[in-house]
Specification:
This protein is 25% helix and 22% strand. The protein is α+β, with helices and mostly antiparallel strands. It has a single domain, classed as Double-stranded beta-helix, CATH 3.60.130. Strand 1, helix 1 and strand 2 form a beta-alpha-beta unit.
């Protein structure tokens, strides 16, 4: 995928922590992901190696979310809540897109080691919209990157995540917001994400542990209850069957 990366050096978004301390990882992730201006990338990749194990990996994701909620409370007086959690095998290439969510939310995606080669790109569509004098929602309406013209417009704002490695456990956090920029009122500034699957193979797995997390008023309750979160952390189930893949069976 031909891209131009001019906004951030790789060490701004490629993280390899020396320890699996959730508090310190959360601080690094929060600064890079939950941005309210354009001096941070709006995403990051946390490579935690290849020995942690799947359940411990998902527990680490939950621990990082908890620590990020504490940071968010100190900085804004608000909290962070889960909107969804899911575990699935994803082997479909995508165009630049947002996942459906509220104006201020982010994705915490836990990629497990896989033999399936893939690439990830992040497009700073809110910066592009700002430069054009548009809100993010106006940009998506006028220059939808699902179509070629909009996609090409985002090229100078697109970064290929060169440190993404299918051989490791990685947490990829992506600001998925659509709030407008304001110099007087801080709002999260979102990005679009793209995946390219180089050689899909239904006999293999590309497991993503997907969570969507939103900024919410203090005292708001997670939309994912404790039992569901516990199941997400400990289950061996992987969703594979879909409307376009009715021949596949879920792993259990």
């Amino acid at each position: 995928m031909k891209t131009t990366s001019t906004l951030f050096k790789h060490d701004m978004f490629c993280l390899r922590p020396s320890s699996l301390d959730a508090q310190s990882i959360a601080a690094d992730v929060y600064d890079r992901t939950c941005r309210t201006s354009f001096d941070q990338p709006g995403f990051c990749v946390v490579n935690v190696g290849d020995t942690i194990g799947s359940v411990a990996f998902r527990q680490l994701m939950a621990d990082i979310k908890r620590e990020m909620a504490a940071i968010h409370s100190l900085k804004t007086g608000k909290t962070l809540i889960y909107l969804s959690v899911a575990r699935f095998d994803q082997q479909e290439s995508t165009k630049p897109h947002l996942d459906g969510g509220p104006d201020e939310c982010f994705l915490m995606l836990g990629y497990e080691p896989s033999e399936i080669e893939s690439e990830i790109e992040i497009s700073d569509y809110t910066k592009c919209a700002f430069d054009l004098g548009l809100t993010p929602k106006e940009f998506m309406a006028k220059h939808n990157p699902m179509f070629k013209a909009g996609h090409e417009m985002l090229r100078p704002y697109t970064t290929r995540v060169v440190c993404f490695s299918p051989s490791s456990f990685q947490i990829v956090c992506i600001n998925n917001s659509s709030a407008p920029f304001s110099s007087s009122s801080a709002h999260w500034q979102g990005t679009l994400h793209t995946a390219k699957i180089l050689a899909p193979d239904e006999s293999k797995r590309r497991v993503i542990n997907s969570t969507m997390i939103a900024s919410a008023a203090p005292g708001s309750i997670d939309q994912v209850d404790e039992a569901t979160l516990n199941h997400f952390i400990h289950t061996s189930e992987v969703k594979r069957r879909g409307y376009d893949k009715s021949h596949l069976k879920d792993d259990v």
